From TrEMBL:
Gene3D superfamilies membership: HAD superfamily/HAD-like (3.40.50.1000)
UniProt KW keywords: Hydrolase
Gene Ontology annotations for the cellular component aspect, listed alphabetically: cytosol
Molecular-function GO terms, alphabetical: phosphoglycolate phosphatase activity
Species classification: Bacteria, Bacillati, Actinomycetota, Actinomycetes, Micrococcales
The keyword Transferase belongs to this UniProt entry's keyword annotation: no
Name of the protein described by the UniProt record: HAD family hydrolase
Keyword set includes Hydrolase: yes
Domain of life: Bacteria
InterPro entries: HAD-like_hydrolase_sf, HAD-like_sf, HAD-SF_hydro_IA, HAD_sf
One protein family per Pfam: Hydrolase
GO biological process: DNA repair
Length: 265
């Protein structure tokens, strides 16, 4: 699509998945996580009271798929809450397990969500993003991550492990604040955290239904999409359109530099 003349950003609000990183689904992650959960249940309850490993793997697979459909549906309400760790494991995965087994995974839900997020995908920093963050730091433009997440801790760990934490001024994750995009409060929290009015921020995401809608609801200065693997996998038709669509991190960096240059910043 054609790029409109964009406002010059005083702050950058960036999604994590699809913008900061590109991800590939790990092969056999359900079996790996299922083995861990089975081991936990055997340790806490004994082998006789623990569901079988095959059932655990099947319920993790089905629960993850069901939660994905729930997340698609939550792009419709104006201000959706996030699916909590305990609800994910207690309602989507272990709803029909014996009470004792269900209680174990609910009590350990935060850690199990962290492990699920770790093993489910392989993540690498998108090309062009380190350059974008470096330019923002040199130009004095604060950056916040604003992202839906089952475990924001995994995103925090990735930034730290890849030397990016120092370029990010704030991190807002849905599992930690209890709401999820397209709830506009997510973007408001990010803007508040970096001390920049929402209308003076660029918001950059990779999904039209979560990110573009969220940006419009919040009233961001510019609403930008970076194309990623799932960008055009829309759950339903949308009337909202971003101000710009770019192919990758390099194109986003170029757009950012061009905007600053035109403003004389």
């Amino acid at each position: 699509m054609a790029t409109a003349v964009l406002t010059t950003p005083q702050g950058l609000l960036l999604d994590f998945g699809g913008v900061i990183v590109q991800s590939e689904r790990a092969t056999g992650w359900q079996q790996d996580l299922g083995a861990e959960v089975h081991g936990l249940l055997v340790q806490r309850l004994g082998a006789q009271l623990a569901p079988g490993r095959r059932r655990i793997v099947g319920d993790i697979t089905a629960g993850t798929a069901g939660a994905g459909k729930w997340r698609d549906a939550m792009s419709r309400p104006f201000a959706p809450s996030e699916l909590g760790w305990e609800s994910f494991w207690g309602d989507f995965v272990a709803a029909d397990w014996p009470a004792g087994a269900r209680e174990v995974v609910v009590r350990n839900a935060q850690e199990l969500c962290r492990r699920l997020t770790e093993v489910k995908s392989h993540r690498v920093t998108r090309p062009g993003i380190p350059e974008l963050l470096t330019t923002a730091r040199h130009r004095g433009i604060p950056v916040a991550i604003v992202s839906n997440a089952l475990s924001g801790q995994v995103h925090r760990d990735f930034l730290a492990d890849n030397g990016l934490t120092g370029y990010v001024d704030a991190q807002i994750y849905s599992d930690e604040v209890g709401i999820r995009k397209p709830n506009p409060r997510m973007i408001e929290l990010g803007a508040q955290a970096i001390g920049v009015p929402v209308a003076a921020c660029w918001y950059v995401g990779d999904n039209f239904d979560r990110d573009t809608v969220c940006g419009r609801r919040a009233g961001v200065g510019a609403n930008i999409i970076v194309e990623a693997r799932s960008t055009y996998e829309l759950p339903y038709d949308l009337a909202e359109h971003p101000d710009a669509v770019v192919a990758d991190g390099h194109a986003l960096h170029a757009l950012f530099e061009d905007s600053l240059s035109r403003s004389g910043s």
